[in-house]
Design brief:
178 residues; mainly alpha; Hypothetical Protein Ta1238, Chain: A; two-stranded antiparallel ribbon; 5 helices; 4 strands; transferase; corrinoid adenosyltransferase activity; cytoplasm; PduO-typ; ATP binding
Length: 178
């Protein structure tokens, strides 16, 4: 199987099921931005988080493939994994466990600190952009509500994961100097 197919050379791509759409279609922008978030998580993992955090981030990367597949597959299909409440519950469990390790936040913090944390903050902002694109897509086409819930919780998870990366590396969060 070749990596190039030439089928997208005219600015179109195929959704699961065969439908052809422009590469700037909102649905393509949505799953493309989810893919960008996943790539940012790969960079964060390459920066060397502690093994426990790395294992959780690996799970999240796999979950983001489910989000992308769900977005790329409008309609019903028994062959496509779908975002479920269980994926969001996993994030909530991880958030709760990490927050139990952290001191309560008493001020706003800036993205930064340890390189892993900085990359996780970047992934969080990309996740928020993905969420905005999906919200816009949902005004034009049907989008499963579980996707929006998952992306909203994922940004919360990434914020807390950045804080835990700093804490476990012995680096302070960067306080906002107002």
């Amino acid at each position: 199987m070749k990596i190039y197919t030439r089928t997208g050379d005219a600015g179109e791509t195929g959704l699961f099921g065969g439908q052809r759409v422009r590469k700037d279609d909102l649905r393509v922008q949505a799953y493309g931005t989810v893919d960008e978030c996943n790539a940012a998580l790969g960079v964060a993992r390459a920066a060397g988080p502690d093994p426990a955090l790395d294992a959780v981030l690996a799970v999240v990367q796999n979950q983001l493939f489910v989000v992308g597949a769900d977005l790329a597959s409008p309609g019903e299909s028994p062959y496509i994994p779908r975002v479920s409440a269980e994926l969001t519950s996993f994030l909530e469990e991880q958030i709760d466990a990490m927050e139990a390790e952290l001191s309560p936040l008493k001020q706003f913090i800036l993205p930064g600190g340890h390189p892993v944390a900085a990359h996780l903050h970047l992934a969080r902002t990309i996740c928020r952009r993905a969420e905005r694109v999906v919200v816009t897509l949902a005004t034009e086409e049907e989008v499963r509500p579980e996707i929006l819930t998952y992306l909203n919780r994922l940004s919360d998870f990434l914020f807390v994961a950045a804080r835990i990366a700093n804490a476990r590396a012995g680096v302070s969060d960067v306080p906002w100097q107002k």
